[in-house]
Amino acid sequence: MSLFSLVNKFVRQIGAASLDVVASEGVAMFVDPELLHSGGDQSHRAGGHAQDGADHLARGPLESGMFGNFAAADSFHGAVTAAHAQHVKNLQGHQETLTSVGSKAHTAANGFTTMDQNNATELRAVRPSSGTTLRT
Hints:
- The chain has helices at 3-14, 33-59, 71-126.
- The protein is an all-alpha fold.
- The protein is rod-shaped, with a radius of gyration of 24 Å.
């Protein structure tokens, strides 16, 4: 598998929206680790907001009889209760997804930084006068 294929697979796994990568076969690749960390932080923050929303929504009581004491009201209450529960579940799912994307962005940033540092070290070992500087 080529480097290009591996990078594309990795980008798809961590979510392309949080990774600024320009790569093609034989062309240099640029990754901004600070931007990845920033995106990861924003994703974690958004996940926290989703969980706060789920917690707040889950506290809202849907008492029986709140729409009246007749068959249609009971049926409507059942539908509203089911929709309410689904919204809470959806928000919890959003929280899990957002925090997962944030964690993957941090992992990617750390991985790219480590790889860049290792490559610079290897390059200096081969060409001590190259003056290679690390980008972090």
